[in-house]
Amino acid sequence: MKYLERRVIHGILLLIGVSVLCFLFSDLAPGSFFDEMKLNPQISSETVAALRSQYGLDKPLPVRYARWVESVLGGEWGYSFAYNSSVRSLLVVRARNTLLLTTLATLFSWLVAVPLGVWISNHPGKWYDRLSMGGTSLLLSVPELVLVFGLLYFAIRTHALPVGGMTSVGFDQLGLWGKTIDLVTHLIVPVTTLVLASLPVLVRHVRASMVEVLKLPFIQAARGHGIGPARLLFRYALPAAGNPLISLFGLSVAGLLSGSLLVEVITGWPGIGPLLLEASMSRDLYVVVGAVMSSTLFMVFGSLLADVMLVVVDPRIRVE
Amino acid sequence: MASKRKIVAAVMFLLSLHLAILLAGFVAPYDPAAQNRDFPFAPPTRVRFVDAAGHLHARPFIYQCVARPDGIYEYEESRELRYPVHLFVVGPEYKLVGLWPSRVHLFGVEAPAQIFLAGTDNYGRDQFSRILYGGQISVAAGLLATGTSLLLGLLIGCVSGFYGKWLDESAMRLAELFLVLPWLYLLLAVRAFLPLHISPTQTFLLLVVVIGTIGWARPARLIRGIVLGAKNRKYVTASRSFGASDYYILRRHVLPHTYGILLTQAALLVPQYVIAEVTLSFFGLGLSEPMPSWGNLLANLQQYNVLVSYWWMFLPALALVLVSFGYLNVANAFHERLQSGST
Questions:
Q1: Which domains does chain A have, with CATH numbers?
Q2: Cβ of B169 under 8 Å from any chain A Cβ?
Q3: pLDDT by residue (tens digit) across A1-12?
């Protein structure tokens, strides 16, 4: 698998590049976490200096970077000044929650987008095609920020769904079934927001690439052989239109993560987003780097997954 | 020709939005920072044509909003006196486009009545005026950041496409890095490393530079592609053989090819960057009170009781949606035009 090997190496290089970029930016920054302490008259400037040197902030950039890499390899991912713990212990739970949210959102948005896009591509110009195209272009101009508040408004008004956080107050007392229900109801608002936000782009891409394929002669031939519309669309046309869609899948992960950050903060979902925001405010350097790195990691995984799918779907890539 | 009419319609819509925002001082009836402590969370004033007695009036009018004696944040209309809405009334002083002092407003009513087209916020400030003034900041940030991005993209794209070799290689690897990163994470990370407590003007410029710089990669890639295609045309070779300099060739023969892409990219980037500014200000990392920006206007919604009880606090979102809708329409129209032009 030459192709996949290359992609994995590419992903690793990407991660290294992002980490270097993060450290470069942090070096340009004029302040640090301990600057706020200097304002406190009870903390002497020697203490601040001692703290800085204890965390190695007084060292030059390459040394800091080397130390950080060492700590990543050791499984610590650096140290959070604000939480007084290793960044990894903070990130693992958060990353799991973000992953849950984004995976579900990806799943549902593709589950809706592919059938819808395929269906309307078969009848371009029909009323439901126009309706979907109009709807998606309208939805395209509604940012996540607005979507999530709309849904929250609905959720709070109707009392149909719990609002805020990931679990209700008495979560620990619930049985397994109760826990699942509770989690699912908390998931509905954030997942729906993300699905609605990513849907327009996906539907439009599916439709566009299907329309291109449906013009091709082999589809006409298949139709001439009397192959039914469902089989024709999903068995013949969709795989042929698959390549750009799979690439889109890899690319859409980044957008989804950005959307997820916003949605997490607003709905109080305990993912990486709120952690990064908090760390940005308090300049908790290694948490910021860790959060960016883990989002990049997700992204790399997403595009690797897309590459694997490409290899499976498209024999040309295997030969190459 | 249909596409031409489409462009005109889309551009007109967008222009009228921008005009209203640019002339915020004139269109808005009140000062965005003027507080009415007696009217927190007053609902939007209803503009009426039919009075309480059932008579029809040609000139629209409003009834004065008064607080209900029983209950907080509850209001009713006092039906005794009609306050007709007048055009070009004299009101609080403002500076048109920040330059010319004036007191004339597009519309208004006589005191003591007040017209709150989009209700008031928790300090009783007129939301309609705040939305317009906030738009100045949010849209200006979007436009300037787009300019920054396109300029950077043009510069890097041209150099990278024209000179190629290791310059091209390294620039494109870097672009890849910026393209694949989730932009909001990147934005927050970069913002995290920059100072928080600085003057509003500095914050504004900082936002513009950060947002614009982060987005350089996509335009740079597109422009590089076009430059690559254009630099091997025969007329470029011909003018080179006549002794034309690189700069001349770039300016005369290569750059004109990029205008279409630049326009379309601009129309796509502006709404994105407006949203980026709104998001940062919403998080409290951008411009803060009392400067209105659509972001910190929307931040009110983070309190769930505000979200549920006062629907008009939602209206800044509508402005945001309108602006991005306008830009996307223009981008679509440009795109169609480019496509039809190339085939």
A1: 88-147+194-319 (1.10.3720.10)
A2: no
A3: 677 888 889 889
